[in-house]
Amino acid sequence: MSTRRSRTTSTKATKATKGKSTTTRRRAAASAGGTEARGRRGAVTAKRRGVGLQQPVRPDAALAEVIGPSPGPRTELTRRMWDYIKGHKLQDPEDRRMIRPDAKLKKVVGAKQKVSMFELAKHLNAHVS
Asked: What residue spans in the chain does CATH classification 1.10.245.10 cover?
């Protein structure tokens, strides 16, 4: 019977913690240089640093007219865009997936009469840096 070990723990940590609790194994893996112990803490510090989806981006002039000039993560900018759409009642009442842009929003989404809600992220990404 062969024993399998995780790729994230070292041999030293595996031998020293056989039969121990999960917390003890994680601490041993951290001291041995494994990545298993980082877990949630690594995600929390990444959120604070602003990497990936949490990285702040700055809207250009056309998008700033709609959602404001302050930078923020893409998720927050999308939320502000939806607040604008709902506040100005721009959703089609018959098909709520479609958005009827006003003059300000047309600068962001193009000269279409209706835009699908699924296209909003694509148009937003074209106007941030």
From this structure: 61-125
d(CA 116, CA 98): 5
Burial class (CB in 10 A: 0-12, 13-18, 19+), 38: middle
**Which residue in the block uniquely carries the two structure tokens 């994680």?**
26
- The partner residues of 91 in beta bridges, in order of sequence, read 99
3-state secondary structure of 115: strand
Q: What pTM did the predictor assign?
A: 0.61
The CATH number given to 61-125 is 1.10.245.10
- The tokens of 78 are what? 């999308």
The mean pLDDT of the chain is 81
- Segment 3-60, tens digit of pLDDT: 665 555 555 555 655 666 777 777 776 666 544 445 666 666 656 667 787 899 999 9
* Number of neighbours of residue 10 by Cβ within 10 angstroms: 17
Contact assessment for residue 31 and residue 3, using Cβ atoms and an 8 Å cutoff? no
